[in-house]
Specification:
- It is a single chain.
- The chain has one domain (3-258): Nitrilase/N-carbamoyl-D-aminoacid amidohydrolase (4-Layer Sandwich), CATH 3.60.110.
- It has helices spanning 3-10, 30-42, 64-69, 78-89, 131-134, 164-172, 189-200; strands spanning 15-22, 48-50, 93-102, 105-113, 119-123, 144-146, 152-155, 177-181, 203-207, 212-215, 218-221, 227-229, 235-238, 245-252, 260-262, 265-266.
- By secondary structure, it is an alpha/beta fold.
- Helix 7 (189-200) links the parallel strand 8 (177-181) and strand 9.
- The protein has a six-stranded mixed sheet. Strands 6-7-8-9-12-13 form a six-stranded mixed sheet, covered by helices on one side. A two-stranded antiparallel ribbon has the order 10-11.
- The chain has seven helices and 16 strands.
- It is globular, with a radius of gyration of 18 Å.
- It binds acetamide.
- Acetamide binds next to loops.
Length: 276
């Protein structure tokens, strides 16, 4: 799209209420976690809500046997039924992470449920540290999904953020909003996402968890600070390190169609593909 066409389209702003849910899941207590999430969601309304990675189970699995026991087949598991019900009742799209079991394989995955009951699954591509011993490697190519209002979203999970190619690929496929369920343990991501949003001119919703999980010799402290970043790299919302909260903001999704930094620079067209 050239600059004048974009400016014409900007007149037709396509507003959406988008949000994240941040909380501290109790390890292994799936029903308790679902109850807590339901109570938090009941008090809010939005069009698209992102929940953390592995929000029903917690993160710090000790062995592959253990994580496999929590695996849910698609689309019949507890997490799927829960997300489907919430999304149809509240008429919103919802994203959230779960342990996916497919035959003998186990993936660190996220659902996207639409209001009409349709669902999509994304499998985490870049496994962090001990996850390499727990989960299987996913090979499906990146793709974008269409919400009912025509807005395109792309999914990544947590550590995928460190690989700029993932969000670049989704942005090149037309994603306007990147949904990013997370269980972040390093301190860099939240600030790095400002650059990811800016260099691709997309919205990024990071839904992180809080708290500490200690299981045997494994311990993880999660960094909270879930956030929503605009295509101009502005922090529209950022949670604290420890609060349990749903936060929502209205965005104009058309802003993510504008790849012009100024009338002379289009960040996609100006890439020197001949050099890299
Ligand atoms: C992570 O990818 N959950 C650190």
């Amino acid at each position: 799209m050239n600059a004048p066409t974009y400016l014409k389209r900007m007149k037709y702003c396509r507003n959406m209420k988008v949000g994240f849910l941040q909380f501290n899941p109790a390890f292994g207590k799936v029903d308790e976690n679902l109850k807590k999430v339901k109570a938090l969601i009941n008090a809010s309304t939005c069009d698209l809500l992102v929940l953390p990675e592995l929000f029903t189970t917690g993160y710090t699995f000790k062995t592959k046997t253990e994580v496999t026991k929590f695996g849910e087949s698609v689309p019949n598991g507890k997490t799927a039924k829960f997300l489907k019900r919430i999304s149809t009742e509240k008429k919103m799209s919802i994203v959230g992470g779960f342990v996916e079991r497919d035959g003998k394989k186990v993936y660190n995955s996220s659902f996207l449920f639409l209001e009409n009951g349709r669902h999509y699954v994304y499998r985490k591509k870049h496994l962090y540290r001990y996850e390499k011993r727990l989960f299987d490697t996913a090979y499906e190519p990146y793709r974008v999904f269409l919400l009912k209002n025509g807005v395109k979203v792309g999914l990544i999970i947590c550590f995928d953020w460190l690989f700029p190619e993932a969000i670049r690929r989704l942005a090149l496929l037309g994603a306007q909003i990147i949904c990013h369920p997370a269980n972040l343990v390093m301190s860099y991501c939240q600030d790095a996402m400002i650059t990811r949003a800016l260099e691709n001119r997309v919205f990024i919703i990071t839904a992180n968890r809080t708290g500490t999980e200690k299981r045997g010799r494994f311990e993880n402290r999660f960094t909270g600070m879930s956030q929503i970043i605009s295509p101009e790299g502005r922090i529209l919302l950022r949670a604290g390190e420890d609060n349990e909260i749903v936060s929502v903001v209205t965005i104009n999704t058309v802003a993510a169609l504008n790849k012009f930094l100024n009338p002379l620079n289009n960040i996609f067209k100006d890439r020197r593909k001949d050099l890299y």
